[in-house]
Design a protein that fits this description.
The protein is an alpha+beta fold and about 240 residues long. It is built from 8 helices and 9 strands. The strands form 2 sheets. Strands 1, 2, 3, 4, 5, 6 and 9 form a 7-stranded antiparallel beta sheet that branches. Strands 7-8 form a two-stranded antiparallel ribbon.
C-alpha cells in the first residue's frame, strides 16, 4: 500500500483543557489574551498527516521486518506478535502555525503560542487515530514512537521516514541530521491494534514527564518483554 496524505487534517482546540494546563482561570485577563491567540492560530493552522499501512514480513527476537525495512526493538516486536500489519505515521501542526508562533516576541505570548501549537498537533493526531479506526475497522489501538523508550531509540526515525517516503514534499516535514523533525510540533510513530491498552509510559520510570498518560509499571518489562534467551544478571556480582 502506498502512503496516504491527509491534507488538511481536522483538529479542535479544547479551550478549557488548554487553560487548565496553562493554569489560567476562565474569564481572567490572561485567559482573554490566550483566547485571542487561539483565534489567530485557528486562522492560519493547517495540520497534515501522512501514514502507510505496512505488512510484517518476518520477525526475530529483537526486530520485525515490514516492507523490506527492519525495525529494531524488542518491545515493538512483542507488541506486534500475532499481528500482520501496522500503520506508520507522521502528523504535524504545519509550517504555517510554526511560522505564526515563531514571530511572537513577548516571552509570555511565546509560551502560550507554543502551548497552542502543541494542542493543535495533539488534537490532529487524535483525528488521525479516528480516521484509521473508521477506515480500517480497527478496534482498540496503541502507539509507539521512536525515542520514547531506550528499546526503540530515536535513530529508528530514519527507518520510519524511509517507509513513508518524501514527507517534506507531501506534508512539509523533514528529518534533520540530528533526527529531530521540522516543524518541531510534529509527531511520528506507529499505530497497531492492541486490546490490552499499551502505552510507552508503562515502561518509562521518568517521574517528572509532562506527557505521562499512565503510571509506570516497574514489573511490566520482566513479565512481558524480557527476551528469554538473554540471562538476567540482576543481583549478581
Amino acid at each position: 500500500m502506498e502512503s496516504v496524505v491527509l491534507d488538511p487534517l481536522e483538529y479542535r482546540i479544547d479551550r478549557p483543557s488548554l487553560l487548565a494546563r496553562l493554569r489560567l482561570k476562565e474569564g481572567s485577563g490572561h485567559a482573554t489574551k490566550v483566547e485571542g491567540l487561539i483565534r489567530e492560530a485557528e486562522a492560519v493552522a493547517h495540520p497534515r498527516a501522512i501514514y502507510r499501512m505496512a505488512f510484517i514480513e518476518s520477525r526475530g527476537d529483537q526486530h520485525v521486518v515490514a516492507e523490506e525495512l527492519r525495525f529494531e526493538s524488542r518491545v515493538l516486536k512483542v507488541n506486534l506478535d500475532n499481528l500482520h500489519r501496522f500503520f506508520a505515521f507522521v502528523v504535524t501542526s504545519g509550517r504555517e502555525l510554526d511560522a505564526w508562533a515563531n514571530v511572537k516576541t513577548d516571552l509570555l505570548e511565546q509560551f502560550w503560542a507554543d502551548a497552542i501549537n502543541q494542542a493543535v498537533v495533539i488534537s490532529a493526531r487524535s483525528f488521525l487515530d479516528w480516521h484509521l479506526q473508521e477506515r480500517y475497522g480497527l478496534a482498540k489501538t496503541a502507539r509507539m514512537s521512536p525515542g520514547s523508550l531506550p528499546d526503540w531509540p530515536l535513530e529508528e526515525q530514519r527507518v520510519l521516514f524511509e517507509l513513508l517516503g518524501d514527507t517534506r514534499k507531501t506534508i512539509g516535514v523533514e528529518l534533520t541530521e540530528s533526527l529531530l523533525m521540522v516543524p518541531i510540533k510534529s509527531l511520528s510513530g506507529i499505530v497497531f491494534t492492541n486490546e490490552e491498552g499499551f502505552a510507552s509510559c508503562q515502561l518509562c520510570p521518568r517521574e517528572d514527564c509532562p506527557g505521562r498518560r499512565v503510571p509506570y509499571d516497574p514489573g511490566l518489562y520482566e513479565r512481558k518483554y524480557r527476551d528469554p534467551s538473554q540471562t538476567s544478571h540482576l543481583g549478581q556480582s
